[in-house]
Amino acid sequence: MRTAITLLLLLLLIWIAGSSYVYVCKIRNDCRVSEAVSDTETTTAEATVVTDEALQAVPATTADTLQAEPAQPEIPVPPLHILYFDFNQSNCDITAENTAHFELIKQYLDANADREVKVTGHSDAIGPDWAKEKVSAMRAGFIKQKLTEAGIAADAVETASESDSKPAADNSTSEGRAKNRRTEILIQ
Questions:
Q1: Domains in the chain, ordered, with CATH?
Q2: pTM of the model
Q3: Rounded distance between C-alpha atoms, residue 95 and residue 99, angstroms
């Protein structure tokens, strides 16, 4: 029994060595590396002369003349930003947080010229439809103006008015209405 196990282990080792040889030499073609090393050891002086002559004779290729551009860190897409307004007002205070978000948007758009900003104005459910539509459009226009003042190109900012058609909260409470009087800034 011991002899059979020894023979099977020996057969396994031979099979592993043969498989490794076939994979390395026949499939990956890496056996030439050892041949090249032995050739260069015997003729290093000749190889250096040939290499120098070859380098002088070969013209510079496009790959040789190109300079790699330094990798620019990827700027993440700024998340949805919401600004809230008082009742029947089309302007609001621009806080430091808002200014910082405007700067993030500017940096992102500078790096991604094919993208644009969508500013959507909303209102609560109080008042006639024409007034809600007008105030939500004015809110979007106010934020567009602030974005352009922050250095964002006006043609990169699209405005829309949703009036009270997409409430963020319940319009039956004063807190809910306050959350609905908003402008949303989103990168498209």
A1: 2-65 (no CATH), 81-187 (3.30.1330.60)
A2: 0.61
A3: 6
